[in-house]
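Amino acid chain
________________
===
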Amino acid sequence: MKQRIITGVVAAALFLPIVFYGGLPFVLLTYFLASVGLYELLKMKKLSIFSVHGLLTLLFLWVILYPEQYSDIVNTFYYTKTELGIAFILLLLAYTVITKNRFTFEDVGFSILSAIYVGIGFYFFIETRDAGLVYIFYSLFMIWATDSGAYFVGKATGKTKLWPEISPNKTVEGSVGGVVCALIVAILFSLLTEINANLLALLAITAVLSIFGQIGDLVQSAFKRHFGVKDSGNILPGHGGILDRFDSLLFILPLLHFFHLW
């Protein structure tokens, strides 16, 4: 617990000033976090990011992450993000031939899906910050409340296993407690901030996001169980890897955009 607290304080001291400042430093931070997340996923399948296929996958991720506010730079080269992404997919497929199938079609599929999974979530991290600081903090506090509520309510009253094949410690009671705590955060944001939603709409959106945040957590648990690892990485002592900390956000940030909250 002491290690978790120290890591959390140090990470917050480094992370929060950049979140407040926004702009290019925030974009670069997001690129770094996403790149580490991709490294962690590839490592689970024993694929090195420090290889030709790893570099191609990383570049594909960077294309996905490229924010809308800088789209004019890409447009000057007469290529869209979709065209560049297709080019990297074709290069990865061609690499299976070059390696005489040592890098397989299955590896290509895993690499592409990994880049999309990590890239879409972190892309909307950039877009959410661009929409306003309040939406970033709404997302963060809502997820923290969901996680904390699920943990403490589950520990105190949890009896019914939520999904024991994936995460044996999670309970239905804890999951409901997490949603309730997230709704409290929604009420506070509705009362204390200028978030662009009436209370009833925000409560409904928050309930859906809290549930999908928990699903994002379970998806990461499923990855780790499938590949037989405890944590996605060790960059955050006491917390695991980047994907261990951002698994819920990778799911809720695209949904937050789909709800047109701003």
Notes: Residues 56 and 118 are 15 Å apart (CA to CA). DSSP finds ten helices and two strands in the chain.
